[in-house]
Amino acid sequence: MKDKVVLITGASGGLGNSVTEAFLNAGAIVAGTSRKITQDEFKRPNFHAFPADISNLRSAKALADSVAQKLGRIDVLIHLVGAFAGGASVADTDDASWSKMLDLNLNAAFHTLRAVLPYMHKAGSGRIVAIGSRVAVEPQPGVGAYEVSKAALVSLIRAVALENKDAGINANIVLPDTMDTAVNRAAMPKADFSKWVPTGNVAELLLALAGPAGAAVTGAVIPIYGRNA
What we know:
It is built from 6 helices and 9 strands. By secondary structure, it is of the alpha/beta class. Strands 3-2-1-4-5-6-9 form a 7-stranded parallel beta sheet, with helices on both faces. The chain has a two-stranded parallel sheet with strand order 7-8. The two termini are 30 Å apart.
């Protein structure tokens, strides 16, 4: 990944920290974004903080333009932004929860893809990897809004893969089971953490898909379930 420009959305946080560090260690030039990210969060010469809100197309385009202007191009998009809300049946899900899940888990990716793809088309190459969830393909009761938004994200990424297969652009999505983050441990303190997916393992998989090993992989929906497989 040496000297590749990698835009990572959701670059700070439980998963984001592991992914950002993995790409920095691999020699990538990382453009890390979240709403409040700062340069001090990763004190590395090849890290560049881009605080941004990707909740609409205008702001996503402004982010992509800023990254391309400062770093010259966007070779890779790693899309980590997402959120979880559950505990209610579909019949009991309120409008606010439904909209929140679609906005954070689907629409943010849609806006970011539309902002980044023109730069990849111009370069004639690109890698896109998004984070989904196991429930996108194995639904469970009580998390309808969340799993619908993640299932739609799978379809979105596969559509991008098909539409860009002759443009030198690969697009894939990784579906983790519960990841071992501080937030998840706090939310489920009685769970068996040893069965959860280490964020470092997810980071290494994303790195492989973005690097030479992923050259022939596109349109893939890849499970990473830990000991819950």
